[in-house]
Every structure is written in C-alpha cells, then in structure tokens.
Write a structure and sequence with these properties.
Blueprint: H1 9-15, H2 24-30, E1 32-38, E2 44-50, E3 61-67, H3 85-88, H4 91-96, E4 100-105, H5 130-145, E5 148-158, H6 160-171, E6 178-182, E7 199-204, H7 213-224, E8 229-234, H8 242-247, H9 249-256
Parallel strand pairs: 3-4, 3-5, 5-6, 6-7, 7-8
Antiparallel strand pairs: 1-2, 2-4
C-alpha cells in the first residue's frame, strides 16, 4: 500500500497562494453547500444551503428561504449569495439564530413568478413557475432529511424575489410561518388566503424599478382584512431597499419570533 506523505507547511502556502490565506469571500461561500435538484417538472435547480453551525440531537431549526432578484439569475450557483444572506451568515447571527438558509438560483431568462413586470398589477398564475415549483420540492426534501422545524419556515426575497415571496405565501399559506417581501408585488385577490401569515413589507418610495404602489396595494388589502402585516416605507430610497432591511437586526428578531399558526 502506498504511503501518503505528510503535507508540509510550504505546500500549504502554495496550495492557498503566497499569502497562505483564503479570501473572506471564499470563506463566506464555503458556509453554503452547493447542491442541485432535479425537479419533477424537469427543471434542474441550483441551490445553496447553509446549516446551523452546531446541531444538537433532538433539536429542530428554522429554515429561511431567500429568493434573489433578477440581476442574480444564472447558472453559477453563487450570484444569489450577493445580497441579504450574508447577514444571516455572520458569526453573531449564527449564534443568535441557528438556522438553515436555502438560497436557490433562478436561471437566466426565467422568473420566480411568470408575470409581466411592466404592468401595474398582476394575477397570480395558476401554477408556480418551474424554478419556484422546484424550490418547493427542495423544501419538502430538506424537511424529510434534516432537522428542520416545520413550524418555523420563513420566506424572504427582494425585487423579483419580492414577487416570489408574495407568490409563496399566496400559494402555500400553510407552509410559511412568516414572509418578508422587499420591493415586490403580489395579487390582492388572494390576500384572504394568507391573512393570518405574519408579513413585514419593505419598499422605497422612490423605487424606479418596482413601483411602490405594488407593496402599498398588498398592505392596504391585508389591513382591510385585519391581516397580520407591518409596512416599512423608506422615504427617498430607490430600488435598493434590501440593504438597510437586512442590516437591521430588528428585521431578524421579528422573523425568528414567528411560528406557523395552527388551526
């Protein structure tokens, strides 16, 4: 049997470059395991999964589904980590709120919700988009195979992912314990279906990409129905309303305090 030679410190230096260190970006991405899922609808979904730093026997953990925006579409299985999830991956947050973070990537040319963004309103499609349908299957798989708390599954998304967040809670209100749609829009006709799901909506009033009325109309309908909704509108803020939302610890304190309502 061939004997393996020990790796010398010099070899380690050359393996990682002359600096002998891995970049902060590499360390961050390494927290998210790269995976693929072949869906029943034929869609192959790239996704990343961060697990709790430490998992105790018999303990279950929340799952946060993050849906990225249109600019992060592709097939590199990395671009979807650019926004928001980095806040959940900080050492402070991993200790404060141990959780699974699911970050799927929508392929270029597809959407989380197949609607026309140029229109002032939208109707929820009869079926979920292929990427979102595949994402739902991934959640089923994670619940089956990992210590996920089924009563603490959350969805959060920005822009295109904000639309996806609304679509998720409209389509599967019994699955999600809470939602955070950021600069997105939904279909007010379905508000009654998820009136008891806690929702915290964020939007900038100077958004030139997704009109602020898209959030306002959803919030208005939910308030009309006495829904469990909070609305934060940032004055003078354009499309990027996600950075300050994600950096605000109150956002996450609120989210992780939510549990699925049971009949």
């Amino acid at each position: 049997m061939k004997t393996l030679k020990p790796v010398t410190p010099l070899a380690i230096v050359f393996a990682f470059g002359l600096t002998g260190s891995v970049s902060a970006q590499d360390e961050f991405e390494a927290l998210f395991e790269s995976r693929k899922h072949q869906a029943e609808n034929g869609h192959e979904l790239n996704y990343r999964l961060m697990s709790p730093e430490k998992m105790e026997d018999g303990q279950t953990y929340p799952l946060v589904l993050f849906l990225h925006g249109a600019g992060e579409r592709g097939n590199d299985n990395a671009a979807q980590l650019v926004h928001v999830v980095e806040e959940l991956a900080t050492p402070e947050m991993r200790k404060r709120y141990p959780c699974f973070v699911l970050a799927p990537q929508c392929p270029q040319g597809q959407k989380w919700v197949e609607i026309d963004w140029s229109k002032p309103s939208s109707t929820m499609p009869e079926e979920p988009s292929k990427p979102l349908g595949a994402t739902s299957e991934v959640i089923d798989t994670l619940i089956e195979n990992l210590p996920v708390d089924p009563d603490r599954i959350y969805v959060c998304g920005l822009s295109m992912g904000g639309y996806g967040t609304w679509d998720c809670v409209q389509r599967w209100p019994d699955r999600f314990a809470a939602g955070i749609p950021i600069c997105g829009g939904g279909d007010p006709a379905y508000a009654k279906r998820f009136v008891n799901v806690p929702i915290w909506v964020f939007h900038g009033d100077a958004d030139g990409a997704v009109p602020v009325r898209r959030s306002r109309e959803m919030v208005s309908k939910l308030k009309e129905l006495n829904g469990n909704v909070i609305y934060t509108e940032y004055p003078g803020v354009g499309h990027n309303s996600w950075t300050q939302t994600a950096q605000n610890r109150l956002t996450w304190d609120w989210l992780f305090a939510q549990s699925r309502q049971k009949d």
